[in-house]
């Protein structure tokens, strides 16, 4: 018996390849981590001026592991953003870049689903665009692959997204402006990282809308595939 005054909400979880579940604590996302995506969103990047990555969050229960994602409310322009996801197994503050990958339990692919129309409205008004990013089911994710040598797993990796069989996003993971290790190091100066945190590492160019009936497939070299239908 416990003293909870209502039923304890269930904890978000993601299945691990080979068995077991990864409990989700927080979902961090990186914005603008691929130069060509910055360009397609109307920004520009001077390669000599490498701005620190910026971060936002989605609620932990935004993880979606089903195969049929309901089209969300209050948008007419739902966009896909295919992203490599880091699953943190060991927490810390002020983590050094050289040590950072030892904090990773495993890897997955995910979708930073975005209400692009709402994001544009909020940007134009100078308001927070949380409503564009942090809605129900906004973070579809594949199974997690436990990885002992993360550096090798990421080397020469490629991430890709197809809608109804047509490739829309395809880029080497080495196109990331901030590497997974650098992201972990920087993020751990903003927040105390904890086991159970997920980090969506940003999307390459080629983001675009999906509609009801579309089948989305996200893959990255050596990682479990994410497939879902928008209903
Ligand atoms: Mn994103």
List key phrases describing it.
six-stranded mixed beta sheet, 231 residues, alpha+beta, Fumarylacetoacetate hydrolase, domain 2, single chain, binds manganese (II) ion
Model description:
The structure is a single chain. This protein is of the alpha+beta class. The chain has a six-stranded mixed sheet, with helices on one face. It has a single domain (13-230), classed as Fumarylacetoacetate hydrolase, domain 2, CATH 3.90.850. The protein has helices at 35-40, 97-100, 116-124, 130-133, 150-154, 180-190, and strands spanning 13-15, 21-23, 27-31, 54-58, 63-64, 68-69, 78-80, 82-88, 104-111, 114-115, 139-140, 145-146, 158-163, 166-172, 198-200, 208-209, 215-220, 226-230. The radius of gyration is 17 Å and the shape is globular. The site of manganese (II) ion has 6 residues, from loops.
In short:
This protein is α+β, with helices and mostly antiparallel strands and 231 residues long. The chain has a single domain, classed as Fumarylacetoacetate hydrolase, domain 2 (Alpha-Beta Complex), CATH 3.90.850.
């Amino acid at each position: 018996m416990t003293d909870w005054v209502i039923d304890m909400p269930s904890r978000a979880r993601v299945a691990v390849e080979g068995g077991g579940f990864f409990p989700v604590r927080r979902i961090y996302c990186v914005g603008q981590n691929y130069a060509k995506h910055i360009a397609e969103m109307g920004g520009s990047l001077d390669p000599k001026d490498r701005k620190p990555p910026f971060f936002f969050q989605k609620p932990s229960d935004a993880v979606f592991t089903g195969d049929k994602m309901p089209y969300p409310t209050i948008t007419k322009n739902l966009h896909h953003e295919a992203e490599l996801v880091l699953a943190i197994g060991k927490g810390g503050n002020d983590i050094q870049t050289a040590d950072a990958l030892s904090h990773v339990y495993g890897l997955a692919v995910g979708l930073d689903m975005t209400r692009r129309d709402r994001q544009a409205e909020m940007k134009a008004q100078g308001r927070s665009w949380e409503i564009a990013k942090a809605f129900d089911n906004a973070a579809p994710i594949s199974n997690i692959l436990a990885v002992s040598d993360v550096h090798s797993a990421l080397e020469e990796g490629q991430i890709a997204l197809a809608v109804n069989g047509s490739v829309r996003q395809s880029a080497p993971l080495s196109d990331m402006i901030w590497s997974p290790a650098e992201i972990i190091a920087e993020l751990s100066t903003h927040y105390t990282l904890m086991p159970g945190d997920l980090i969506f590492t940003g999307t390459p160019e080629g983001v675009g809308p999906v509609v009801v009936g579309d089948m989305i497939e996200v893959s990255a070299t050596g990682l479990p595939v994410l497939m879902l239908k928008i209903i």
